[in-house]
Amino acid sequence: MEPLTPRHRRWLITRGLLRALATTVVMVALYYVLPLDRRSGAYVFAVLAVGVGLLAGMTAWQVRAIEYSDHPSIRAVQSLASLTPLFLLLFASTYLLLSRADPAMFTEELTRTDALYFTVTIFATVGFGDISAQSDTARLVVTIQMLLDLVVLGLGIQVILGAVKRGKASTGSEV
């Protein structure tokens, strides 16, 4: 593979970042407009299980795409920039559904923004305490998120970086 010119490298990086930003904006917009109605706790757990399964499948697909990309590093940034918000929005939707099913599950009834904020504070491990889980069901979902946060941060990033390394080795790419 030919070395990239500085201009072409900048273009690839800019395009990759814009694609990642656009993907995130679309996902957040969908989170705010898709109907999330009141449902039972069993329904919420089923949606969460299916969502985590789909996320795992998407991650596997992204790893493969990174390995076969002409520019694995850029593809990895795009992958992380789409998979991470999807992970967070999955849990935000779950917390919103739980709150709508029973507002007493949290210290206050959650809006979409509250649910997203709560999800991010858990992911970032800051937990300000202004919103907290009050029921066993909500605490169980929070525990699941915290455990999966560790998997995403540890194993997930390691898998993505391994895919970049394999992709660069097979294509000879600089980026």
From TrEMBL:
Pfam families: Ion_trans_2. Residues 86-161 form the Potassium channel domain. One of its GO terms (biological process) is monoatomic ion transmembrane transport. The keyword Ion transport applies. Keywords: Ion channel, Ion transport, Membrane, Transmembrane, Transmembrane helix, Transport. The chain crosses the membrane at residues 12-34, 40-61, 73-95, 115-133, 140-161. The keyword Transmembrane applies. This is Two pore domain potassium channel family protein. It comes from Georgenia yuyongxinii.
